[in-house]
Design brief:
Distance between the termini of chain A: 27 Å
Shape of chain A: globular
CATH topology of the largest domain in chain A: Aspartate Aminotransferase, domain 2
Oligomer: homodimer
Order of helices and strands of chain A: EHHEHEHEHEHEEEHEEHEHEH
CATH superfamily of the largest domain in chain A: Type I PLP-dependent aspartate aminotransferase-like (Major domain)
Strand order of the largest sheet of chain A: 2-8-7-6-5-3-4
Helix content of chain A: 25-40%
Number of strands of chain A: 12
Largest sheet of chain A: 7 strands, mixed
CATH architecture of the largest domain in chain A: 3-Layer(aba) Sandwich
Chain lengths: 375, 375
């Protein structure tokens, strides 16, 4: 099997599994317990926060570990709003459902919500986001890398200007698709909150984080319980998953500088093997992109049979977001982009474990599949 | 080390670790993905729901996997309330903080909240709970086993009568401390929602569940995102932890009938070794209890030095709830019970991995520690 669905989830790195192992056996204590084993688990949680925070630059960041990116996004959005102050919330129309859904909920609670439309190239104009923000804006949420089509949004430019004009507006960035793939220190230098997810960077499922810049207003908890995670996120910490998240972040930091050229080589190998196919063309490549993420526009060929035919050839790819895959409705991203009804998009997402040979085979397989299906 | 803090968390059973292993390696796919590996992960999640639901009896139950017991409690409480209908919510004063905190939040949202006071024996009167419920009551939440003092609450009697009188009142039970330790089918036969936690039954951290009886009103999600868990709990499923939860539930079902006599033997060995100590006496033993959970009342000796002295003798015990251990405030349970200021409570919580010899040593160690400290 050649696994090219790394935007949905990634295989656990063997070193991550090794980092988790002790906390799945002897080190099983509750990190809130006062006894020695509990204190050791708590110290590991604190230690794991360091490499996780470092993915987003110097901050300084307070790390709030959550169950994953969806919960971190919800905490950043819902936790930043105070009911009764009906004010503006700005986002884009191509965010993850965990942003759009919770922004919509703020709308139901009285906020004025603005979803900035994407450009035809699959990103957004920084100026359009900046202009949507006014003095009453309580929160802006921008994704860095789009999970369905792999485009980058102009986070640095938009957030710098928004914070310069409106220092009290909170700015949140969903960096789930780019953390560990791109250096983020400059990108996130004016941002108040950042969402990360371990399982998108060869860490385990069950661990995400909301980074909150020290000095920025902290979000209100989504629900109440014990005193864990500075009172912002109650519940027994998922100690093994957090250990794995720390290890994955550390590994990502070590490989990040070599990732860009590797991904370039992988993408080139795939494109060459795929060749020119009018029914299947690389898309949304005008601007900067998530390294290793290839979006392909299908014309006259629906995505689902392509995905299954690719799997029959031992190549795992996907269309759109896994979070919505069971729904028959069209992806909101493709809707917002105004894709014609007879067009669809599939994604090929490599990782540092992918080889040039994998990509060559995948490109050839797709070429054959499209030849079969596009007749 | 003799670990007797199994009410805070339990060691992972080796068979649970084995059940998780494939999902931490080859089986890493996103359970929402349409491709084969994704469908396999989704099928495992569905399969794991069966033994988890079976812990609570025939139901039939819809299983909503969460990140743990705290989130499941929050979902049951917050998700059952509709703003604008200021109605009554009934619970007890000795619930877990994830119940009391979220009930308090409903109070801030306009609900009339009633916290039934405990009896001196550390339980509640079923009649007091039943009488607190009126026709306007939207929700009742009762814990089955208390996490700090090990008492059982009269869930069966109270819930049966409440549902008979007020069929539209939702009844939620936090069974985190008793699931897998006691057969629950009869106890929960009139209940709408049940909270379970994997890591209290030798499963992994990062997996809990809210069981919702089919036909009962489903809770509103705490936050929005993808379509996972029937839309009630968005976010990529923690596939390995859910696999572990299923295995832990299956193992618990196999050992549950032999647990009661084993726990009796363990408790007896501990009591005999401890002997009679006026400064340290078994407490809250008048009524039914969580098997293997011993609460000890300390008179004139604070809990914290006892816990540390026990650890120096290689026995891990605790006081109160791990979820509040970092706070210097006194436990709300001991407050509600009106414990005098010079008294404290420690808990000894065994598991099926504990031996009679462990308990004998622990009792002797505590006897020596109390002799040292109570002078």
């Amino acid at each position: 099997m050649i696994y090219l669905d790394n935007a949905a989830t990634t295989p656990l790195h063997p070193e991550v599994a090794r980092a988790m192992a002790p906390w799945l056996s002897e080190g099983f204590a509750n990190a809130s317990s006062l006894h020695g084993p509990g204190v050791e688990a708590a110290a590991m949680v604190d230690a794991a926060a360091l490499p996780v925070a470092a993915l987003a630059g110097p901050g300084p960041w307070e790390v709030v570990f959550t169950s994953g990116g969806t919960e971190a996004n919800a905490l950043g959005i819902l936790g930043s709003f105070r009911r009764g102050r009906a004010r503006r919330v700005v986002t884009t129309a191509i965010e993850h459902p965990s942003i759009l859904g919770n922004v919509a909920r703020l709308g139901e609670m009285g906020a004025e919500t603005i979803r900035v439309a994407p450009t035809p190239a699959g990103s957004v104009d920084a100026a359009a986001v900046i202009d949507a923000v006014d003095a009453s804006t309580v929160l802006v949420s921008l994704m860095h890398g789009n999970n369905e089509i792999g485009t980058l949004l102009p986070v640095e430019e938009a957030c710098r200007e928004i914070k310069a004009r409106h220092p009290s507006t909170l700015v949140h960035v969903d960096a789930v698709q780019t953390a560990g793939r791109l250096p983020l220190a400059t990108t996130l230098s004016s941002v108040d909150m950042v969402t990360l997810s371990a399982h998108k960077m060869h860490g385990p499922k069950g661990a995400g984080a909301l980074l909150v810049r020290r000095g920025s207003r902290r979000p209100t908890p989504l629900y109440r319980g014990g005193d864990q995670q500075a009172g912002i996120r109650p519940g027994t910490e998922n100690v093994p998953a957090i250990a794995g998240f720390g290890a994955a972040a550390r590994l990502a930091a070590q490989t990040i500088s070599s990732l860009a050229p590797l991904m370039q080589a992988l993408e080139a190998a795939f494109m060459e093997a795929l060749g020119e196919r009018p029914a299947c063309t690389p898309a949304f490549r005008e601007g900067p992109r998530v390294p290793g993420h290839i979006a392909l526009r299908l014309i006259g060929v629906p995505a689902e049979p392509v995905i299954h035919a690719m799997e029959a050839r031992s190549v795992i790819i996907s269309s759109g977001s896994a979070c919505h895959s069971r729904s028959s409705a069209r992806s909101h991203v493709l809707e917002a982009l105004g894709l014609p009804a007879d067009e669809d998009v599939i994604r090929i997402a490599a990782s540092h474990e992918t080889t040039v040979e994998d990509m060559r085979k995948a490109g050839e397989a797709l070429r054959a599949v499209i030849s079969d299906l596009a007749r």
